[in-house]
Design a protein that fits this description.
- It is a single chain.
- The protein is mainly beta.
- It is rod-shaped and about 125 Å long.
């Protein structure tokens, strides 16, 4: 204890001696403050008047009394050296941040190099002339440097440490910051856009151990502000952008040791449109976009993680085959590493709610671990998606719900749906304005399900024989409208019924399987000799493979009830019916039937109750009864 007391006494004695040898200054200053007369003590606020000039030599130290200011309206030159910096500090024996009010610059700074500024409320820059700060240190201040509208500021090779806020600028300010260090501040650097754009850049800087945030972009910071080639270590959050901010970020190194999340945190409400580019680390989204007006663009290589997903009026994903846009859970370490600091982990289905849109153009994306991979959020939605992988979702794409029954428009091309728990694509009352082509389906619950008046245009689909449900397109529900089933390249599994007055049209080459039967008022089957329309048993692997996932099997007579036509005109060409109880049954209907083949059924064709059937060039093979008239 005696040793400590002696050390404290020695420090206080030394400082008191220095106080005795100090030069007092107060009020207006100009000319030269020399090292020979240093240290100086500003006993009251000092100022450089408009038209005056002040030069401060290297090695000069100015100590400011509590509550004092340094006002610059004229011209100043602060030229320190590495060994003999210019020092602005507190005059208190036990100094603390905010002891003196700092420097207000409204005039001209010819040079600001090798300056140390401590224990103040910072520098407020309101000048219109360019200011260049190099090789300087700002420490133990509240707000080290605050840049106001219109000032061009250039900072390089400087250090901001132990401050409440290192550097702040906003509303029309223009700043370039390079090769500087932001260490142990509460917030390293804050940019506030407000109503106008902030221009400038921060490049090649190092952010370490800033308690809250390394860089904060708040309120409408747009892509005229560039953040590039910066490194982040042990911060609360490396970068946070919020409230309509879309800075241009690239080549950032976010080491996986942050206190919060290892990525760019997006927060707040977005009422403006904008684009986000690949910063070199993931975005973590807790923001909400205005569903009526906004367009959100994600450029190639962007990784977007979160729990709510993305919901905007318009979405544009501009991925490439080698640099896709990725939407995934923040528990998913396979993209962007351990973002949430929970150790090695993978995501889970439903971690992310959904990607929802009124209009969306999605090119080359990867969408994982969502409840709904894509889901429209308004009537009359428009979707164009290509080259995209949907995996580990509950629904890869979900067209469902009352607001979405106004005939959504969608084109889905060249996409891959795999390991989605419920459905690759689900459609409920979507009409016929959805086109799905050249897509591949692997290991989903069901590849595609059509429900209630859904007639998408399906073609060239690859449905691999490894799904949990059926290996084909499942049709369910009560259909109240007429429509066309196109040939998807895999079987349909029919568990639907068509109401009176409806007509079902089926394109050439289409295979429909069932364990129940099909009942429709009118049927148009347009097969050809090379591509007949096939109706067969769900257990018949000879058409479309093992559709019901029961292993190798073949059908048996009466596996399903067959086709029932009633009260309308049917036109059938090159139709093949197998393994039904009654292959084709007419009830008070009229049918023009040519090149029909009915095989391995209990009855081939049955006409009931004054039905009129014109049958020609047809074959009845291995049935219990060929034609049965009642």
């Amino acid at each position: 204890m005696r040793v400590i007391a002696k050390v404290i006494w020695a420090i206080l004695f030394t400082m008191s001696v220095l106080q005795l040898h100090a030069t007092d200054i107060c009020g207006s200053v100009s000319g030269i403050l020399s090292r020979a007369d240093s240290p100086y003590v500003a006993t009251c606020s000092i100022s450089v008047a408009l038209g005056d000039y002040l030069a401060i030599e290297d090695g000069v130290e100015i100590r400011f009394a509590p509550g004092t200011n340094f006002y610059i309206y004229g011209t100043v030159n602060f030229t320190g050296t590495e060994l003999n910096p210019v020092v602005f500090t507190s005059n208190n024996i036990l100094p603390a941040a905010g002891d003196w009010n700092g420097i207000r610059i409204e005039g001209i700074v010819e040079q600001f190099t090798h300056v140390i500024m401590r224990y103040s409320n910072g520098i407020n820059v309101i000048a219109t002339n360019p200011i260049i700060i190099t090789n300087s240190t700002f420490e133990y201040d509240n707000y080290a440097v605050v840049l106001h509208e219109g000032t061009p500021l250039y900072i390089s090779d400087s250090t901001f440490q132990h401050n409440e806020l290192g550097l702040q600028y906003y509303t029309g300010a223009r700043a370039t910051v390079a090769s500087s260090i932001f260490n142990d501040n509460y917030i390293g650097l804050q940019v506030t856009g407000e109503a106008t754009n902030v221009a400038g850049s921060i490049t090649g800087c190092y952010f370490d151990s800033n308690d809250s945030i390394g860089i904060l972009c708040a309120s409408s910071v747009q892509d005229s502000y560039v953040i590039s080639r910066c490194t982040f270590d042990r911060n609360g959050y490396p970068v946070q952008i919020e409230d309509n901010s879309y800075p241009a970020m690239s080549d950032l190194t976010v080491n996986q040791n942050q206190i919060g999340l290892n990525g760019i945190f997006i927060y707040g409400v977005y009422n403006k449109s904008g684009a986000l580019s690949d910063p070199g680390c993931p975005y973590i989204c807790d923001a909400h976009w205005n569903l009526a007006t906004t367009t959100l663009t994600l450029n190639k290589g962007v990784i977007f993680k979160g729990t709510e997903g993305i919901s905007a009026c318009n979405l544009r994903f501009n991925g490439t085959t080698t640099e896709p846009v990725v939407i995934t859970s923040y528990s998913d370490d396979s993209y962007g590493g351990d973002t949430n600091n929970d150790g090695p982990s993978v995501g889970a289905m439903g971690d992310v709610l959904e990607v929802s849109y009124a209009s969306a153009v999605i090119n080359n994306a990867v969408i994982r671990y969502c409840y709904n991979g894509l889901h429209p959020n308004s009537p009359n939605s428009v979707l164009d998606v290509s080259g995209t992988l949907f995996e580990y979702c509950n629904y890869g794409i979900n067209f469902n719900g009352d607001p979405y029954r106004a005939d959504p428009v969608a084109t889905i091309t060249g996409c891959n749906f795999r390991d989605n728990q419920d459905f690759g694509i689900y459609m409920n009352q979507v009409g016929s304005n959805i086109s799905i082509s050249a897509c591949t389906f692997d290991r989903n619950g069901y590849p595609i399900q059509l429900d209630l008046d859904s007639y998408p245009v399906l073609s060239n689909l690859t449905v691999n024989q490894n799904h949990t449900g059926y290996n084909g397109v499942l049709i369910v529900g009560g259909y109240e409208t007429s429509g066309t089933l196109t040939n998807p390249g895999c079987p349909y599994i029919c568990e639907a019924g068509w109401n009176p007055g409806t007509t079902l049209t089926i394109e050439e080459g289409t295979v429909i399987k069932s364990a129940y039967g099909l009942s429709v008022c009118g049927l148009r089957a347009y097969g050809t000799s090379e591509q007949p329309v096939i109706f067969t048993s769900l257990w018949d692997d000879s058409y479309g493979g093992d559709t019901n996932v029961d292993g190798p099997s073949s059908g048996s007579p009466s596996d399903w009830n067959g086709i029932t036509l009633s009260s309308s005109l049917s036109y059938l060409r090159h139709l093949r019916v197998l393994y039904a109880y009654t292959g084709l049954q007419l009830m008070r209907g009229v049918a023009d039937i040519g090149w029909l083949e009915v095989k391995n059924c209990f009855r081939g064709v049955q006409l009931i109750d004054r039905s009129l059937g014109y049958i020609y060039n047809s074959d009845f093979i291995s049935n219990g009864t060929g034609v049965y008239l009642v």
